[in-house]
Amino acid sequence: MTLLATQTLSLPVVTTTTAETIATVDDLVYDLAKWQISGFEVITEKGKFVLPVAGIESAADNQILIKSWDSLVQHEDAPELTAELMRGPKLQEVEVRSANGERVGYLEDLEITLTDWTITGLVAGRGEVSDLLVGPVRMGSIDVDVKSPTLVQIRPEAKIDLGSETEQTVAATLQKAKEGADDLLQKGSDIINNIIK
Q1: Which end of the chain is more exposed for a tag (fewer CB within 10 A), N or C?
Q2: DSSP-assigned beta bridge partners for residue 22
Q3: Adjacent-strand bridge partners of 2
Q4: pLDDT of residue 20
Q5: Kind and range of the H or E element at 132?
Q6: Runs of H (alpha helix) within 48-87
Q7: Residue 121 CB neighbour total at 10 angstroms
Q8: Are 37 and 119 in contact (CB under 8 A)?
Q9: Strand extents, DSSP E, 32-159
Q10: Could you give the CA distance from residue 72 to residue 39 in angstroms, rounded to a whole number?
Q11: CATH numeric code, 88-191
């Protein structure tokens, strides 16, 4: 079964021995260069823990099953996993560029399989306005090279529809206009806040 990584957030973690929900998925740990999920950061009543994928009995789109509490590792006892935690803001810091170096957007999501925990695809957002006009870009592992933890580049031979040049130009122009308007609103808000002080 394939799922978007963001769909795993907030999934309940249930033990097979007692059938009780003992945790909730809060984050995922992955290695983009290896196209692999390593585990999940989970929240329990006792605090944060790490659930390595080796401790998962099975998973579905509505829950993750583990044998018992022993499948969870204390957060501070798993530095090799927690050092690699990639949360939403970090995921969105991964830039996606076309083969000729033009910015396509930023990584928005990962497609993952729940059986072998591989990353089978990437979803790049072009920006709020652009996504509405031309949609996000979906890419498989054969379509991209992971250049660094913060850069993914689409291979020249990839058959990915980035939209027509006109669509891309309109979307990029609208996105820049939106970002400019947001920036002006923030500056105006800052000026008003300084006057009020």
Answers
A1: C
A2: none
A3: 113
A4: 94
A5: helix 128-134
A6: 79-82
A7: 19
A8: yes
A9: 36-44, 47-52, 56-59, 64-66, 73-74, 85-86, 95-97, 103-113, 119-125, 137-140, 144-148, 151-154
A10: 10
A11: 2.30.30.240
> CA-CA distance, 100 to 11, in Å (whole number)?
39
- State pTM to two decimals: 0.70
Distance CA 178, CA 17 (A): 52
Q: Which helix (H) or strand (E) holds 172?
A: helix 165-196
Choose the weakest-confidence range: 99-113, 142-156, 157-171.
157-171
Q: Is the pLDDT of residue 126 over 90?
A: no
Q: What is the rounded CA–CA span in Å between residue 55 and residue 60?
A: 15
φ/ψ (deg, to 5) at 161: -85, 110
Question: Which CATH number describes the domain made up of 2-86?
Answer: 3.90.50.10
Tell me the domain boundaries of the chain. Answer: 2-86, 88-191
